[in-house]
Amino acid sequence: MKNLWSISTNEFAGGKESLMRRGNVYQIANGYMGYRGTLDEFGPEESVGSTLAGIFDRVGSAWREPVNAPNAGFTRVSLDGAELSALGRKVRHHEQTLHFANAVFARETVFASRGKTLTLKSSRFLSAATPNLGVVQFSIRCDKAAAVTIRTGIDCNIWDLNGPHLPQLTAEKHGSVLLVQGVTNESAKRVVVAEAVGLDFGTETHETQGHRNLRAIRLHAEAGKTYTFHKYYAVFTDHDAVGTPLPAAAIEAVRQARALGYQACLGKHNAEWARKWERCDVRIEGDDEAQHALRYSILQLLMAAPVQGSANSIPARALSGQVYKGAIFWDTEMYMLPFFLHTYPEKAVELMRYRIKTLDGARRKAATEGPGYRGAFYAWESQETGDDACTYFNVGDPFTGRDLRTHFRDKQVHISGDVAIAMWEYFKLTGDDSLLLEGGAEVILECARFYYSYAYFKRDKGRYEILDVIGPDEYHERVNNNAFTSTVAKETFAIANATVDHLRKNHPKALQALLRKIDIQGELPRFREAENLLYVPAPDPQTGVIEQFDGYFQLGDATVEELKAKMVHPNEYLGAGQGLAVATKIIKQADVVAMLNLLRTRFSTEIKKANWEYYEPRTEHGSSLSASAYAMVAIEFGKLDFAYKYFLKTAKIDLEAKYKVYVGNIFMGGSHPAANGGTWMTAVLGFGGVQADENRVAINPRLCRKWKSLQFQLVYQGDGFKIKITKTSVTINPARTNTRKHTLLVAGSPAKCSPGKPVTVKYRQAK
Amino acid sequence: MKNLWSISTNEFAGGKESLMRRGNVYQIANGYMGYRGTLDEFGPEESVGSTLAGIFDRVGSAWREPVNAPNAGFTRVSLDGAELSALGRKVRHHEQTLHFANAVFARETVFASRGKTLTLKSSRFLSAATPNLGVVQFSIRCDKAAAVTIRTGIDCNIWDLNGPHLPQLTAEKHGSVLLVQGVTNESAKRVVVAEAVGLDFGTETHETQGHRNLRAIRLHAEAGKTYTFHKYYAVFTDHDAVGTPLPAAAIEAVRQARALGYQACLGKHNAEWARKWERCDVRIEGDDEAQHALRYSILQLLMAAPVQGSANSIPARALSGQVYKGAIFWDTEMYMLPFFLHTYPEKAVELMRYRIKTLDGARRKAATEGPGYRGAFYAWESQETGDDACTYFNVGDPFTGRDLRTHFRDKQVHISGDVAIAMWEYFKLTGDDSLLLEGGAEVILECARFYYSYAYFKRDKGRYEILDVIGPDEYHERVNNNAFTSTVAKETFAIANATVDHLRKNHPKALQALLRKIDIQGELPRFREAENLLYVPAPDPQTGVIEQFDGYFQLGDATVEELKAKMVHPNEYLGAGQGLAVATKIIKQADVVAMLNLLRTRFSTEIKKANWEYYEPRTEHGSSLSASAYAMVAIEFGKLDFAYKYFLKTAKIDLEAKYKVYVGNIFMGGSHPAANGGTWMTAVLGFGGVQADENRVAINPRLCRKWKSLQFQLVYQGDGFKIKITKTSVTINPARTNTRKHTLLVAGSPAKCSPGKPVTVKYRQAK
């Protein structure tokens, strides 16, 4: 039977693609930084990467991207003078494992050389307790006595997509601590890496060969004896508010860790992970495949979740590398946030603080992106300042070799509404209005201001319209009255108005201060009007189908297969104004259906079904976000087998890693945290049927066939609940520490839940 | 010295391109039909074409295009059994001439075969007096006695771009008259061609070989004797409102012509042409090159001008063939109409009646082209019904082999305003409001209604905007607040309001009937508001430059040469959303400058100069319309040498025929009546400085260096004037038949002009 708490492989060689894939699948991270699933002896050629959260840099005119730290996880061993690598010919056995329970990566490789074998074991983790810290346990054992050299330290050869970002690294040694420091090229951020070892064998010399800052440990290994040492490394950057200079802080950190020792470091780390899983694990009885993939997905989200107080967010490829410029997209609010909001609000609040931190960037974008835009137009691809990293020419054209003009940056305006909705969701589900007061309300009002500046009034129709946008379906650019975008804009006005009402009632002084600060008092009546008069396409009275945008119904009909058969180049893009999909109804991903999922309580099951059935056959699912939205809506009208198929597809995207790692010459590999979030969403909010708003939590389970039970935790307005759903009952176990009694709705029936008093409610699953 | 009243060549062979060019340059036409400048013995391979005005047809899914009539100009000669053709090897001499004075095409070819020579002469004209009639005089002379066969009649092998449009032609003989008739494929229009000859030699037999309806005339030609006969042919279609069946009408027409005889037919034809030139000729002393090219341009316009009562207009390639689908573009109103308005209002009124005739088509387009569009959205490519012949995929992409989506049809909304402005210009310059009453006012109000339905109100700016359009510069699609388009829309509202005011004052009952008919009373206050509140980009206060559209100034700068150097395929299109020009300031043709020319009295010379200097270096002049707009504006601020260069470029476009005849596989050849109109405009309105409005005619001459004098005629509000401009004086010779005294402004000084009393005013040309 499959181990449901790990993933392993004994693949050890292979081409660039397979190395890349394993680097993605086996990555570890702790919110502060990532470390790709590569091996100790690897270098930049094998895509070793330790991506830092929230530190970005640019070289020349290339894409701005996150910075990879110098590789302090580096260790290379030679046996009787012959250097060993899992990619060499001396490998007899190799196995590597990622442990879900504590995000530990371990590998064991047996090398044979000139009649001797050497068994190399290592395991590494990025501390969940001390974010700057990485720890490695490394051991070797030879079957026969042999001369072994272990070179370990900091490799300054950094894998970058568009580097070098740390052009002038200095290698130093401070007592027993190795130190490498540098300053980023454009952003002038200092990055410091220190490394220390706990070692009780061999003789050590300092080497700085090959742009590495290393210690060479030479020993005469006895036959059958295991030699183990530990590496502790710390990464610090200007973003760390430490009282001392960064080098001193880094040196101190590794000395402390070494003093504490490996087991103690691991113990603290494990304790943190135990708490995470206690809050976030989901258990599925009866379906190990789903259980495993779902847990892997949750692991990814937990590893990528920002460090408390960092006001960082989660990039579209998390911390698995520099792909997509390390940028934060709408994916985070729409697909990842629900997981954190329902299980781990302390992380959700960081994601939202990131949008507060980048509000000025959003203001700058509005001021420069179009004539008369005001307020906050959030970046389509957001980095640390909130300025937009998205280029206007975002897709390569294989026909001309030039880049195609896309309007992702300037027309995908739903991003601001996605942020405002997320901010309000946080308030609704936590009941905590402190985020509003510390900038969330300002974000919301500035988003509403942006939409007002973007909207036009159509006098002869007596309505506002949102024109010239791209919805989630990026194949159709510059459309008018896109159902998703207009809905999100209308919601933003409603939320802005509700925010003002809430503050007026509860924090009148804060409201006045805010209104003065951003000089918006005079615009508030317009927001009320826009909430009422903004046009959003309605379901067709006959068919129930909502037109995705003006004129969509008049586009040509085609199947995805028919469309693809017309392609004359495998890499040709289907959108960007001239692509094959543009004149057809084929869409890239859920758009109307994503809207129906976002506002799932607003529409009847019939409307959802009608739109699902209309749009699904016309959807390419060219984005990893698409399947989960379709799964969510399918569940609501009972198409559970289909939903399950899409759930699994979403859940296994990173595990199976079948996606293209290279598109043309561009490296696209990495993890898919939005899909990971979509997986959790489909399991808990979809099959589990959880639907929470400011008033209550409702549970309308629709377990899929295979699942005997589904267990998960929820945090709602500060109180915790363990939920177990079977085919016939829902058991709610309110935490003993809950502050009040809650009434949950189970399949429509109220279930009164007092702190510490489990309640079981029988139900009959809707057909 | 050059003959200023003709063009000749003795080129007789050459490839397809050169045949095509000569076919264009030497064409004749009489408004009812054209006949390309091909030779009697030619067939469809040599692009013989007799294009009918206002008759369109479609085959399958190919472009809808005008119909070519069966070729009744066909005559082929054999000498001692050897067939003669100017393309064969027997030619000893060839010369062909187009006479400007009467639009007669003549050719003389000497053939040599087996020691004998045969001299073939023919001349042809399409009667200006009897539009259905074509007449050919044909003669042969042999230097030695020889057996000659002349086959003449109607060739049913028709050159079509997207035919066959007359799939089932029947060949008949009625007495001595040959008759061919057929019905168009899709439009089911009957086309009948009759032919008769006046012949006094040889023996005649009837032949219907090779899909031709011919008479074979066999004779034993005596040495040195000239044998001459005449062909009379008539074309009738369902558009001819004749009382009798069309075959009878056609037969009767050729019998009458034959009875009248060649000289009498030619005499009537010549008399008509004499009247045309009397009204329309422009004389330039001191510059034969300009004189010749200008006269050729005027000839083209006069030949293409619609038959009285036809309510036809002039296609972009006139009657030179089927290129551009025979469609009428904005070119007609903006570039051709001024010539007719100032010299030949009876033709101008037909052009305008065409827009009245096609108003329902424009209404259909509005109703179907966008959500909530109302009123009249005129076709970008207009045929007989006013439905749009423009496709959504209008430009071939050499990279993919597919057609590019262009927005000419759906977004080039300035067309409706161009029509409304033209309608109002007619009223202003003729003082004749009957056109308004017979449908012109309805057109104007429906155009205003369209713009109102298209416009959005921007509440926070307190203004209407015209969004998402293409201006004359077609390289930048889907732009907002295009200076040209918004200006034209604002003018349309002003004109609609002025129309209502005029009718209210002068024709109150007609106004009421019209308002009821189109149920528009309630919308009139909106038109007043829109006239005031529609936003039009203003000159920058610092530089005077008007931004072509929102965001234009932020586009990349480049020279046309730099841009073209980036092309990777010679046929790649620079626009359509992804072309090389799209992200740059490079524009296809005059846009802001075209607007400044259209509203030439509204802007100061400084503003004109500033915009000219800004935009000219950024203009590709990829349209034949561009140079004349730049020339016009250049004249206004004294850049006369430049203006002259662009004037000549425009004037010689058809004469030199250097343009590409084929673009890819698409035949693009034909005449350029808009450039012809631009030539006249530059000469008379530009260098001549004529500027007429509803109140008066002003003349501010700026003769270019070479021109000693410029003489032309004007018709203004029904009265005629001969004008002669020298470097120092303007002489105005009001027609004796004028109905009233006029005060013209010459370089700012009033010149009182009584009927029949010439006035000379001295002036000093502005620097």
Topology record:
The structure is a homodimer of 767-residue chains.
Chain A (H helix, E strand, L loop, with lengths): L5 E4 L6 H10 L2 E2 L4 E2 L15 E7 L7 E4 L2 E9 L2 E2 L7 E9 L4 E10 L2 E11 L6 E10 L3 E10 L14 E5 L2 E7 L6 E9 L4 E5 L4 E10 L4 E12 L8 H15 L1 H19 L2 E3 L2 H17 L25 H14 L1 H13 L1 H11 L23 E4 L6 E3 L2 H4 L2 H17 L3 H21 L1 E3 L4 E3 L17 H24 L1 H11 L5 H10 L26 H6 L26 H7 L6 H11 L10 H11 L3 H12 L1 H4 L5 E2 L2 E2 L5 H15 L2 E3 L4 E3 L9 E8 L2 E8 L2 E6 L7 E5 L2 E5 L5 E4 L5
Parallel strand pairs in A: 27-31
Antiparallel strand pairs in A: 1-8, 2-3, 4-5, 6-7, 6-12, 8-9, 9-10, 10-11, 11-18, 12-17, 13-14, 14-15, 15-18, 16-17, 19-28, 20-21, 22-23, 24-25, 26-27, 28-29, 29-30, 30-33, 31-32
Helix pairs in contact in A: 4-20, 5-6, 5-9, 5-20, 6-9, 6-10, 9-10, 9-11, 10-11, 11-12, 11-13, 15-17, 16-17, 17-18, 17-20, 18-20
Report on this structure.
Two copies of one chain form a homodimer. By secondary structure, the first copy, chain A, is an alpha+beta fold. Among the domains of chain A are: 6-279, Beta-galactosidase, Chain A, domain 5 (Distorted Sandwich); 329-537, Glycosyltransferase (Alpha/alpha barrel). Helices cover 33% and strands 25% of the residues of chain A. In chain A, the strands form nine sheets. In chain A, strands 1-8-9-10-11-18-15-14-13 form a nine-stranded antiparallel sheet. Chain A has a five-stranded antiparallel sheet with strand order 7-6-12-17-16, with no helix packed on it. A five-stranded antiparallel sheet of chain A has the order 19-28-29-30-33. Chain A is globular and about 90 Å long. The model of chain A has no long low-confidence stretch (mean pLDDT 95). The A-B interface holds A 370-372, 392-393, 397, 399-401, 404-405, 452-453, 456-461, 465, 467-468, 478, 480-481, 526, 550-551, 568, 572, 576-578, 582-583 and B 370-372, 392-393, 397, 399-401, 404-405, 452-453, 456-461, 465, 467-468, 478, 480-481, 526, 550-551, 568, 572, 576-578, 582-583.
